[in-house]
Fold this sequence. Notes:
Elements: H1 2-5, H2 11-77, H3 95-109, E1 115-122, E2 128-130, E3 134-136, H4 140-152, E4 156-159, E5 177-182, E6 191-197, H5 199-207, E7 216-220, E8 226-229, H6 236-252, E9 256-262, E10 265-275, E11 280-288, H7 289-336, H8 341-344, H9 350-372, H10 376-388, H11 397-406, E12 414-424, H12 438-453, E13 459-464, E14 469-477, H13 483-501, E15 504-509, H14 519-529, E16 540-543, H15 560-571, H16 575-592, H17 596-616, H18 621-625, H19 630-635, H20 640-681, H21 688-695, H22 699-710, H23 714-732, H24 737-743, H25 748-759, H26 763-781
Parallel strand pairs: 15-16
Antiparallel strand pairs: 1-2, 1-6, 2-3, 4-5, 5-6, 7-8, 7-11, 9-10, 10-11, 12-14, 12-15, 13-14
Amino acid sequence: MKKITNGWNSQYFRKNFILILFIAFLPGLISGIGIYFAGVSKVEDELKDLHETQILQGVENLNNQFDYLEMAVSHWAFTPRFNASIIDLNYIQQFQETRDIGRTLLTLQGSHPLIEKIELFINSPEPVIFRPKYNLITDEQEYQYYYSIMRNHRNISWNSIYHSTNEDNLESLQPLILTHSILANSSDPFGTMIVTLDKSMVSQLLWTLTPYNQGAAFLLNSENQILAAANSMDDSTLIRYLQKQLSDKLRNEAQGTFTLDFGEETYSVSFGQVNRIDSQWTYVSASPMSSITSPIVLISQIIITISIIGLIVALVMSWFASKRIYSPIAKLMKQLDTDDKWNSNKNEDEFYLIEQKYKELSKESMSLQNRLSTQLPQLKNSFLLQLIQGYLYHYSEQELHDRMKHYGWKVENHTFVVMDIQVLGLHESKATFLNRDESIAASAVSNIIEEVAQHRFKQFNVVNFYDLSTGLLIVYPSEEKVRKSLHQFAEKAMEVLNKVLQMQVTITISNPDKKIKRIPYLFEEVRQGKQYRNFENENQIIDLQNLDQSNQFDQIHYPFEIEKEILQAIRIGQIDESERLIRDFIEELKSKGRKEINIQPGITQLFGSIQHEIMHSGIHPYEVFEGKNMFEEVANIRESEQMVNWLTKEVITPYVQTLEGKVNMKMKQLVEEVCIYIQENYMEDISLESCADEVGTNPYTLSKAFKKVIGVNFIDYLTNLRIDKAKGLLLNTNMKINDIAEQVGYRHSYFNRIFKKHLGLPPSQYRKKRVNESTIKKVLSK
């Protein structure tokens, strides 16, 4: 409690609390009162109109549903499917026609949500009923039921003769039935179509006449009998009471609205006429007044509740807001008043003490400024990085001018120029201390550039981008001519980097600019400008002030044919061939356009085509590349050999390994199944296509798998197996050559030719030669 009430003794705190409470609560209070007195009556009128409109819309929807149902049944009854020939149909022998009748009924049954079932009665010599499947009527009572429907109703009519005789149980109401005679418009029909409505769906449709699904809704025929009612056991007594009350009203009025007291509730009752094809129905909707006016009561309660809550919330929020406003002052006083004067004297002026302490802190601030000056280089680099990366974009030119001046730059009447130093050939460099490490090489480049620049420029800053490129911001008086000095510096930097790192250098010099906000664009300008370098590892200086970009673009050339060869080599897993073709691809690009801006898009396009091939094979690139951003990597490659190695080792090899891991097992199982099938059926007429069908694949896939797994193609494997079987029969049996040919699946003439092709002599000579050799061996052994 002491913590909560802390500060109440302060007059500053109390004034703030009362002001915030007044500001927070008064607008809400005025709004609540205005809404309550001005809006409630309007909402009540709108709700009553909405209630009447909703009932009319529900009646229109009800009428539309029944109209659509009548038209649909009439349409189907007049179809040629149900002409006079149906009575002479042999439903068993002509099963196709019988099945079509059933399908037609099923289609009609599914054409409207109110339909529960459809029956078709045919009064043939052997009466039948479709439900919708064909059934023969053998029970006389069942036959009389359907026959009475056919004879006692007009061409199309609503069945209104099956009603509940139990006045207290609406659940026993029979569902509505719509009948249509067959043949339609005939004075002597020979059948009838009986459409039974779904009782629950009709009940749900009637519920649309009662807003909020409260009260009662039902349909009456012209004899004041209940045809259908919304399914609610609690409203049965109300419905029967309304049925009696409407008996007198319906004689004098076709439609109307009145209120009715029933039990402890007052109902708003609406009724009207619905014209059907053969009768006139009456709809009745009774809704409790409480359900109509409940939103008004709810709104009133909500407004009162919100006002009370608003007062409580305003009180709490005002207290905490006052505490929040006062808290910095209290904390500041505790920090400033080291002698605890504030706690001993509550009437002491807080702001006077703050003023005194401010003067003391100002002196300490000067001391801190001196200490910060030692960290100035780091601060300048940090500011420059933020400026380049766009974090200071919202600062104005003057604000940036002041900050740079604060950090020690002289920028008044000065001009800015940016240089990009890109080293190339790290993977070919002989400098062993670099160890092919880009971070080490990048740091070495930055240190060398900084050391060389110290002897050339008074104001400069080096930015290490850690991608073998270094940025250099140079600030010089606007009246000086430094372009020559910039070129001399570039040549000196090249000389030192060539000697120390044994790497080639591309230096890009930006246009000069006097605006600080243009510095990020100068850095981006040189990063883009170095793409105009020749795509060779050689020293180059690109001066954007003298560069004619319109002549830097060679004619667009892309070696599509080599790309196709690369993709084909990848498909069949030839990594070495792919590497050779990639070298040819790059050489072709270089032969038509030697600028990096022409080479880089071609390599990016090639990678995109390879990735498309990977996805086309059913493998996700994420699985192959382990989530790496490959397009970002390819954009940062600037050397031919590095491009070849990257595409081969980082892209193609992982893909081929992944593909082989997924395909080899399946291919092996496939070939094993085919080999077993061939060994068991080699004497039959076997082909690649028949074997492919046997294992559920296509001939191309099977042929490719056979060659990869077995080492020979399909036809050679089959031929070798048959020749081996034939050799065994020739040597171990006395079967005739013709019989042996048939035994191994060949015709006689073709068998002789294929046997001679493989062994160099016909079957008969082969048998004779081997028998003679065997005889000689036996003689010699004796």
